[in-house]
Amino acid sequence: MKKDLSWIDLGLISYEKAFNLQEKIHQKCVEADWTDTLLFQENDPIITLGRGSHEKNLLYTPKELAAMGIKLTSVSRGGDISYHGNGQLIVSPILHFERYIKGAHHYVRCLEQVVINLLGNYGLPGKRIKGLSGVWVNDPNTRDDCKISALGIAISHGVTLHGISINVNPNLKHFSTIIPCGIEDKGVTSMKACGLTPPPLTEVRDQFILAFDAMFGTQTSKQTIDKINEV
Questions:
Q1: What CATH number did the domain enclosing 208 receive?
Q2: What EC class is this (predicted)?
Q3: Is 181 assigned a catalytic role?
Q4: CA-closest candidate to residue 82, choices 117, 34, 45, 130
């Protein structure tokens, strides 16, 4: 029997506001007052520093970043440093993950596989690289393996936070302000940079939901953020 799941699309929203909503949903899930949820969003440019971040991987000062219109913030997820911005879809599964998948490591690998399957629907072969998280593709411009999807999660009271980002058509120049995820010898790419006509983020969202349902055995239905305040 498929497990019920909700999805909410916040659209273009500030990272701070989106994370406040994510924490609210997380708490309600912990208290069993809300169904497990996939939260989708697009952010204005921001660099996030995970729990494992290193100062050397931030290549610009906060003042220089501000002049470029890029914010900087520390976050509770695992991993190093990441960039989020317009043209990138962020997915935050807020789940009692062991209802679906046993073990945090297996959960992460399954999230990666969801993105690999999604990219395959667009004719783009995604893959994993041993020892590195996220999803990678061979960029036709550089002929190198480049990251197209970054991943960083947190688990609190058995419920997940944060999640995965998919580069559809972000400003790739902004990634030069950091060493993404602290990986010095690998670049970053996007669906557009790989030669695809960038699909709308709403289309990528719908493809993610289909791939997620198939991987996790869920049945996902739309919900609105207004309902959160009614619980």
A1: 3.30.930.10
A2: transferase
A3: yes
A4: 45
Query: Is 92 annotated in some ligand binding site?
Result: no
Q: Enter the pTM of the model.
A: 0.92
C-alpha angle 216-219-222 in degrees, rounded to nearest 5? 120
109: containing domain: 3-230
Give the angle 64-68-70 at the CA atoms, nearest 5°: 90
**Active-site residue, selected from the candidate residues 29, 110, 146, 181:** 181
Gap between the Cα atoms of 119 and 107, Å rounded: 19
What are the per-10-residue average pLDDT scores of the chain (231 residues)?
92 92 92 91 90 76 89 74 92 93 91 98 95 91 89 91 95 84 77 96 98 96 78 55
- 143 carries a ligand binding annotation: no
Residue 128 marked as a ligand binder = no
